[in-house]
């Protein structure tokens, strides 16, 4: 080991940066809110349906923006942090779970936009319409296609919740059983 590597190891951060933590927890809160709103919108009286859909769409656009920022942050090394390697299985599994969450979240966001646009409606976020970038005949799809996109959107939302619960359970396992400090890295 050269002296430079020793200095790097000494200066290695013990926690993720504020930006990474903020992106992580903001996305987590929005995902949970979106899931609850998505489940509620089909179970409330008709008078409540429109306002819940409006909030769901607005928060969905906000989540999409955060998702893009989070992917850019990750690709540019913003979340780069070196820690001592844990068990080999965990070291291989964690990136797969994180990558899977990114794929699921990107998919559910894309399907949300497509489901709305497939009915010929813009996505309205905070009162601002976002028109479909697709020209006819792709701008308005059949009711069956619209229904399938909405169903896939819902199924992926459930998959995200299940994966996120697994992610949270793994963090708790690290905190309570392994006591290796993994969970503390994402707190203040």
Percent helix, as a range, is: 55-70%
Number of domains: 1
Q: By helix and strand content, what is the structural category? A: mainly alpha
CATH superfamily: Transmembrane di-heme cytochromes, Chain C
Q: Radius of gyration over alpha carbons?
A: 20 Å
Helical stretch tally:
5
Q: Mean of the pLDDT scores? A: 85
Question: Which fold name is given in CATH as the topology?
Answer: Fumarate Reductase Cytochrome B subunit
Instruction: Give a count of the beta strands, DSSP E runs of length 2 or more.
Output: 2
Biggest sheet architecture: 2 strands, antiparallel
> What is the strand content?
under 5%
Strands of the widest sheet, in order across it, are 1-2
The succession of helices and strands, N to C, reads HHHHEEH
* Low-pLDDT regions: 1-10
Say what oligomer this is.
single chain
CATH architecture: Up-down Bundle
Please give the alpha-carbon distance between the first and last residues. 32 Å
Shape: elongated
CATH class: Mainly Alpha
Family: Belongs to the cytochrome b561 family.
InterPro entries: Cyt_b561_bac/Ni-Hgenase, Cytochrome_b561_oxidase, Di-haem_cyt_TM
Subcellular location: Cell membrane
Cofactor: heme b
What order do the helices and strands come in, and which of them pair?
Blueprint: H1 3-11, H2 18-40, H3 46-75, H4 88-118, E1 123-125, E2 128-130, H5 143-178
Antiparallel strand pairs: 1-2
Cofactor: heme b
InterPro entries: Cyt_b561_bac/Ni-Hgenase (IPR011577), Cytochrome_b561_oxidase (IPR052168), Di-haem_cyt_TM (IPR016174)
Transmembrane segments: 22-40, 52-73, 93-116, 123-143, 155-178
